[in-house]
Amino acid sequence: MYSRALPYLLILPSLFLAAVVIFWPVYDLVQISTHDVSRFGQLRDFIGLANFAALADDPDFMAALWRTGLWTLSVVAGALVLSIPVAMILNSDFYGRSVARVIILLPWAVSLTMTAVVWRWALNGESGMLNSALMGLGIIDQNIQWLASASTAFPMQVLIGVLVTVPFTVTIFLGGLSSIPDDLYEAAALEGASGWQQFRTITLPLLKPFINIAIVLNMIYVFNSFPIIWVMTQGGPANSTDILVTYLYKLAFRVGKLGEASAVSLVMFAILLVFTMIYVRLAMREREA
């Protein structure tokens, strides 16, 4: 009896600390979102779900919600598609592999805010490096205002989001590829399997647990990502590149609607919680099968 309870007793302090760190802020958010709140954070009258109703009636919130889904899915999918072949190349044996790995993983060590600042300069409509390069190659004959319109700004932000997500995803996939025995590929080659057949029947199935990890972690990371959108456009022009986290920031610190901002936080928390629970459940069911 004691031996069975011992592991739970040992992890109980950590569980308690994690519960405090996670659930205390959630409790505060529930309190704020269900009350009328002053700009200084003072709780006034209880108003129930009025803040959530105000969000539902706000077209900017609905647009930011839809755009957040598009942003998250595009960045995560793009990072996965790029990271698998990059990880396979870096996992192969070639001269200078260590240097190549450092070059690929180096952007991960750079501040995301600094990366966004550099790209904002590069995409400047008058003196940006991208316009200069494209004009030098003869692709365009006049400057493009990349960040002045959502039709160009948001796709560029998605592209940058993919590029900064690739290093972390490649790291996960390198760990998975290094765990696959070389004997499997040698046996498959002796049986006459092509490179594509080896990838489809050996690499991809054995890499699937690591792909699941990358999807869950990247979804959470990208969904809550603030610096790229904020540094480059601050959600503009005219809120046309806002995602939920930048919409929340404006709501709380520019407009002073702390109650509605807390409601947005709870909506984001609920979306991530539901996604994680569904995805983990599906992964477990697949493993059991």
Automatic annotation (TrEMBL):
Domain of life (superkingdom): Bacteria
Membrane-topology annotation of the record: Multi-pass membrane protein
Primary location group = membrane
The residue ranges crossing the membrane are: 7-27, 70-90, 102-122, 156-177, 210-232, 261-280
Q: Domain named ABC transmembrane type-1: which ranges?
A: 65-279
SUPFAM superfamilies according to UniProt: MetI-like
List the subcellular locations: Cell membrane
Q: Which InterPro entries match?
A: ABC_transporter_permease, MetI-like, MetI-like_sf
The record's family statement is: Belongs to the binding-protein-dependent transport system permease family.
Its name, as the record gives it, is Sugar ABC transporter permease
Q: Top-down, what is the taxonomic lineage of the species of origin?
A: Bacteria, Pseudomonadati, Pseudomonadota, Alphaproteobacteria, Hyphomicrobiales
